Amino acid sequence: MNVSHLVAAAGLTILMAGPAMAARDYISIVGSSTVYPFSTVVAEQYGKSSGAKTPKIESTGTGGGFKLFCGGVGVDHPDISNASRAIKESEMKTCADNGVKEIVEVKIGYDGIVLANAKAAPEFKVSRKDIFLALAKEVPDPKDPAKLIANPYKTWKEVNAELPDSKIEVLGPPPTSGTRDAFVELVMEVGAEKIDSLKAMKKADAKAFAKVFQTVREDGAYVEAGENDNLIVQKLQANPKAMGIFGFSFLDQNADVIKGSVIDGKGPSYDAIADGSYPVSRPLFFYVKKAHVEVIPGIKGFLAEFTNDKAWGKDGYLADKGLIAMPDAERKKVAESVANLTPMAMK
Amino acid sequence: MTEQTFPLYGGKAASLQERLGDASPQERKTVGTPFVDDPRMTCREVDVFYGGKQAISKVSIDIGRNQVLAMIGPSGCGKSTFLRCLNRMNDTVGACRVEGEIRLDGINIYDPTVDVVPLRARVGMVFQKPNPFPKSIYDNVAYGPRIHGLTKDKNELDEIVETSLHKAGLWEEVKDRLREPGTGLSGGQQQRLCIARAIAVSPEVILMDEPCSALDPIATAKVEELIAELRTQYSIVIVTHAMQQASRVSQRTAYFHLGDLIEVGPTERIFTNPRHKLTEDYITGRFG
Amino acid sequence: MNDNGTQTAMNARPDLLAPASDLKRRYRTDKWFQRIGLGAIALSLAFIALLFFHIVREGHSAFVRTNIMLDIDFAEKHFVKENLAAADYTALVKHALTETFPEVVDRRDKRQLFSLLSSGAAYQLREMVLANPRLIGTRQQVWLPADDDVDMLQKGKIDRDLPEENRRINDRQLSWLDTLASQGRLETQFNTAFFTGGDSREPELAGVLGAVKGTMLTLVITLMLSFPVGVAAAIYLEEFAPQNRWTDLIEVNINNLAAVPSIIFGLLGLAVFINFFGLPRSTPIVGGLVLALLTLPTIIIAGRAALKSVPPSIREAALGIGASKMQTVVHHVLPLALPGMLTGTIIGMAHALGETAPLLMIGMVAFIADVPGSIGDPAAVLPVQIYLWADSPERGFTEKTSAAIIILLAFLMTMNSLAIYLRKRFEIKW
Ligand SMILES: Nc1ncnc2c1ncn2[C@@H]1O[C@H](COP(=O)(O)OP(=O)(O)OP(=O)(O)O)[C@@H](O)[C@H]1O
Ligand SMILES: [Mg+2]
Hints:
heterotrimer; B: alpha/beta; Rossmann fold; 27% strand; C: mainly alpha; 3-stranded antiparallel sheet; 6% strand; binds adenosine-5'-triphosphate; binds magnesium ion
C-alpha cells in the first residue's frame, strides 16, 4: 500500500480526462419530460440505423431545458430543447442575449392530458367546469356567486348532481411538471371561465382570476403524486374511487387497467386528440440551435429521422409510443421548414 | 566522585548549595551527588510544564557513562516526565514545555538546530508496557537500522539483528522464528525484544520507564541481568517502583518528590543511609 | 479494612441458594434487554427478506426474454448495395413473417403481424451479416426478439382473457402467437441483451451494461480522488495539525459536510466542474468528481476514527527509536488504521453508488443508449437507470426496474464483500 502511488494515479486520471473533452461528437438534447419518451425513441432509432453516436437526452422539464438551451452557443450548450409548450418571448430574449440568434421550431404532434380511473370503476363524464369546481382551492359561493369561499365540495355529486356520489380524490402532477401547467391552462382556466361570476372577475381583475384558477386545493382532495406517472397508474388500480391526471401515453400503454374519462362530451382516444375534438390536448415541440447544425455531427440526420413519416406519421413508431400525429398537411409544412432550417422570427 | 563540588556550566565550579540555595533554600536543595565527572548527559535547572502546571522544577543532574541511574519516587512525582525530556519524547505532548538545559556530550539537545531523529537514535527508550510493532521479530529489530541507514546490505542487517537479540538475551528463544510476529511473544520476551530493538541502533543512552512492571519475577530477573550487561556499553536511566530492583541494577539512585529532585547518590548509600528525611520516609515505606 | 466494615460486609453477604428479589429483577431486566435486541434484529432481517423477496419476484422475469424463431432468407437481392450496413434488414424480417403466415394479405393485418417482432430484430440481423457476410445467399433459422407486448403476454403480465379492446394484443395477434408457439417458434430464453446492451426505449432491448460501466467508471474516479485525499486529510488532521481554533473549525465543518443534502454537491459540481472548468456534462469524470466531494467527509471521519484507534504506544515505540513523524505514520500507524479506513471508504462508495440527486444537476440523469467507453463519454449510472425505467410508460420496464435493482444490490454486495476481504487481508493480528 503506497500512498504516493495512489496520488499519482489520481493525478494521471485527471490528465487523461483532458483531451477526451475537447469536442463533442454526439447530439445533446434537454427539455420537457413529456417530449422525452418520443425524443428518446427517435434518438435510439437514429443511432442504431445511422451507426452514429446516439444523442444524449436529459429530461429537465420545458423551462429547465430552455434555461440550458439559451445559455449560449458552443459544445458546452445543448443543441436541441424539447418543449411541451411554445417557447416564451422572455426565453427567446434570453437566447438572443446569449448569442443564440437562430432557432428552428419543430412542432412534432399533440399530447392529450387525461383524467382517468381504474377499469373497474364506473366511467366518468365530466365538464371542465365540474373539474374546476372539484379541484380549485376557492370557488364562488353557491349562495352568493360574487363571493369566493374555500372549496366546500366533498363528493362529485355535490359538484354536479349527475355525477356519482363518490369522494373527490384526484392524483396529479406537482407544480414543477409541464403536465400540470397544461392541465391548469386547458382545464382549470377554461372551466373557470364557464362560471359567470368568474368570467366577470376576469374582466375586472385578470390577476385575481389567474390566482383563482391556478390555485389547486390543498385539503387532500388533490394529491400531488410526484413526477412518476407510473405510480399514479398503480395507485388508481389499488383505489377504484380515485382519479388520476397524466399524459395520454400512459393511458395508451395501460389501457387494460385504467380508462380515460369523457371531458366535455369527448373521450381521450387517439383520433379525438388528433382531430382536435378532445378538449385537453396540447402541441409538443422541439427547438434546434441553427448555429450547431453544421458543427455537431448528426443533427441533420436526427431531424430527418424525426420528421420522417415512419417516425411521426399516423402509423409511425412514435404513434405506438402515444404521440398523436399532426394532420398530413401540417406535417408536410413542418418537415419542409425543418429541411430548410428556417429559423423563427426573433422578436 | 566528589561531593558538592563539580564542574558546572562548562567548567565553572560552584557548590550545589550556592547554586540552588539562592531561590528557596528549603525546597530547592538537592542533597547528595547529582553531578559526576565526565558525564554523558548533563541536565541543568530543568523545568517542565504541562500547560500552566509545573511538573518538574529546577532539576539538575548528570548521567554518567557506563552506569545505571535509577529514578525512584512516589507516583506522579515526575520521573517519567523527566525521563522523557532526555530524548525529547515530550515534544509529542502538545501542552508540554521544557525549560533549562540538557546536554548530550556537550550539545544542548533543546537547541533549535538539533534534530530529534538522530537524537533519539542516540538516546533510545524502552517503555513501561512492551510495545513491539505488529510485525515480525526480525522486522522489529531491523526497523531502527533500516530507517537510519546503518547497514549496507542484508547480511549486515542480519548480523545487527542477531547481535541485538543476543545482547537482549532473546536470541536462543527466537532464533527459529524470526519471521513470526513479535506480538506473539510472551510479555517478558516482548520487553526484551523492545530492548533489542532499542539497542539495534547502537544508542549511547538507554532510557527505561518501569520496564519490568508488567513482567513476572523470572522475566524481571532476565531483564535485570540484561541491564547489568548492557551497562558495560551504554548509559542507562531506569525508572522503577521496586526498591529492590533499584538497588540490584543501579549504581546511582535519584529520588524525586513532587517535581523536585530531592536526593542523588550512590545506590548503596541512598538505601543504607539516606540523608534527606523524604528519601528516608520513602525508602522505609512510610509513603503509600 | 476495619472490624466494622468486615461486620457489615458479613451481614450483607448474599445467600447463594436463595437469591434476593432484587437480583431476580436484575436478571429479568437482562432478559428483557436481550429479547428487545433479538426482536430488533429479527424485525430488520424480516424487512430485508421482504424487500429481497419482492424485488426478486418482480425482477426475475427480466432475465428471460420472449424470442420468435423465423426462417430468414438472406437472399442476395437484398444486398445489392456496397454498404452491407445500409441494407434493408426490416424487409428480411417482414419477408420471413409473410412466409410463415401466407394468409395475411391485408395491409392493416400485416402491420399488426409485423408488430409482433421487436424493432431490434432487424438490427440483430444486421449485426449477424456484418459479423459474417457469408450468410448472404443462405437461409437460416434465427431467434429474434419479440415485441415487449408479446413478451408481457408470454410472461402473464397481460391477461389474455380480458376483452379485446382492453388488450394491447388483439385476437388476431393472439392466434398468430398461438400458431408460432405450437410450431415451437415462440420461447422465453435467457436474456443476454439485458447484460450486453445499453439503455433502450424498447423494454425488450434495454440492457444494464451502459449503466454498469458508467457506474464503474464513475466510482473509479470517485475512489481515486476521495481515497487518497480523504486519507491524507485524515492523517494531517489527526497526526500533524496543531490543536487550535482553526483545526476545531475545520473539524466541525467536515462533520457538517457529511450531513449536507447530496443535491448541494450536485449544484457545486455544476458550478465548479461544468461551468467553471468546462468539463462536459453527463460524463463519469464530472460524476466521479461530485461523488468524490460527497464521500470525502465520510472517508475523512472514518479515517480519523481509524487513526485514533491505533494505540499511542505504537507511535511512541517508533518515535522512540528515531523514526520521523512521517515514518511513524506511514510505517506503523497507517497500516494499522488501513482496515478501518478501507471500511469507511467502502461505506462512502456504497453511499455514492446509490445517489441520483447530485447527478441530476450535472446531467447524468439522461437517456444514454451507447455504452460509455471512457470517462469523457456521456454515461448513466445504475440508480439513474432505475429511476428512468421506473418512470417509463411501457409495462415491460416494470420488471426491468426490479432487475436493475437486483444488479445494483449485487454491486453493493460485491463491494461489501470486497471490504470484508480487504479488512481481513490487511488486518494485523496482535
Ligand atoms: N500529558 C500530560 N499532561 C498533563 N499533565 C501530565 C501529563 N503527563 C504527566 N502529567 C502530570 O505530571 C506529573 C508527573 O507525571 P509523571 O507521569 O512524570 O509521574 P511519574 O513519576 O512517572 O508517576 P508514575 O510513577 O505513576 O509513573 C503528574 O502530576 C501528572 O499528572
Ligand atoms: Mg511514570
